[in-house]
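Aim 2, interim progress. The first record below pairs a target sequence with its structure tokens.
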Amino acid sequence: MKDLTTRQAEVARWKTLRARLTDAIDLLELAIEENSADEIQAVAQETAALEQEFAQIEFNLLFSGQYDRNNAAFSIHAGAGGTEAQDWAQMLLRMYLRWAEAHAYRTEILEETEGEEAGIKSVTVQVQGEYAYGRLKAERGVHRLVRLSPFDANNRRHTSFALVEVMPELEDEGDIEINPDDVRIDIYHASGHGGQNVQKVATAVRLTHEPTGIVVTCQNERSQLQNKENAWKVLRGRLAEKKIEEQEAERARIKGKHVEAGWGNAIRSYVLHPYQMVKDNRSEYETARTDLVLDGEIDPLIEAYLKSQVN
């Protein structure tokens, strides 16, 4: 029923757009006949609005995947490099949270492991909102940062890596069936800063899917039950994402082109020194406004990637 309602809304949106376009044409003919500058200006304004509306609908057509409309969860893992990489993972987290805020998406940190000196070792965030997965799936892969290190006394240039994983939230648990016997469940005390915030009761949950080796942890809720429910959601999402990746790899193999997703194949580079540039290595889209990108304005990068997958 939810899918039917969504599709009916899409049809209604197209019908409304067509009606507005017909009205604009009629108004333009009348404006020309009466030589009315005001009406011609009104048509120009309506045309600009129609173009913007059409561009948004056309963009939404890029979301044709099975789970593209769903909520999502993403994880960030700092690569090798200690504090430098952990700080980069923290920068990426801020970028995605700012992006989600701009889209009015609701976010919740399910698990976070802090670095010893700065930044984070890993984090998992739930994102709720329409097309959350369809957009965020463009971000999965290795992200590379080049900059003058704020942690290097000699102010040398460093290269850091972080891995971003993106999983859809499955509305129908039957989409991915998990044998409970294949999952090891560990309960432990959530990590914290110490003092009064240390959990007295073990509430953190770790799920290990033994056939695939996928490990999911959730610890930010005070309730063990809530952490367990969130962990199961993320596990289903990761298994769904693994299935999608396997299907994409098979299609790429059939086409004769397949590149392993490894540290040597960063999907995007963020260069802050000796020049300013963010470049997506898949779509070739690039921008010199690194400040805007790191502040969450990543929609042009996402759109360029999605369009490159269609062409």
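The second target in this work package is listed in the same format:
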Amino acid sequence: MVADQLVRAGIGHLRIVDRDFVELSNLQRQSLFTEYDVEQHLPKAVAACERLQQVNSTVTIEPVVADADFSNLPGMAADVNLILDGTDNFEIRYLINDVALELAIPWIFTGCTGSSGQVMPVLPGKGPCLRCVMPQPPPPGSTETCDTAGVLGPAIGVISSLQAALALRLLATATEQLQPRMTVVDVWNGRFRDVEVAHLTEQTLCPACQQGERLWLRGSRRASSTTLCGRNAVQIVPAEPLQVSLQELGRRLQASGDVLTSRFLVRLIPSPETEPTSDEHPQMEITVFSDGRAIIKGTSDPAVARTLYSRYIGG
């Protein structure tokens, strides 16, 4: 929705980065895609580009099918004026924050779950960054994701429109005219709330924007993945050992498929409605341990495993 509004507004160049393919479950809220894109197994970046080029042929649209990480995101962001967060997990958002601070590029943080969402501009050197507001990302399994809690399509529309409006202001006017604040919206209850965050820059002595720390950009806070030989499985290990509430995680995953919860682990077999199976896409099985480590069975592709981890576990 953000890409559609900006292309219709006539921005000069848009680079879309995404590692995933279009799935049927995306169509409820991702308005660029159609059932044809699902049938053709098109990468999201390519499908979005094809649609947007029909909307406004004067805009240069560059699709990048890649798993954005600390090794390639600085290069992809080096020549842009603004970075827009359309992501679904905190690890990539903290990396975007590091890259934006390092390159002195404004970015807009957004997120949606259920019927609510939030949006906040980050202006390097002129206001608080993401780590001023949230010094550390929430542990995996401690917050809902759009796949475990659902997301209301109109909530995406409202948050995306606020983000697009901020983007146009940042591109067209001086950043000094923007006040650092986070806008929180719940469309189900019709509530809008502005949270003042300008004071956090000095109060927190933020290690990122005040002291130059770049943990995610250096790769030291990146979750690692290892393909398990002969098992058609990938192990995901958080950057630091965590303490996950297995009972709480198991409860949150109940709506996503068959769940087994024990003292030692939570095992999820996603339902066919959420993860359709075929010869090309076999049945997945996700096992999470109390330290946040997970084994994703049914793939040997680390990118696919990370996508499933973000989708169901979060973090």
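The radius of gyration is 19 Å. This observation will shape the mutagenesis plan for the next reporting period.
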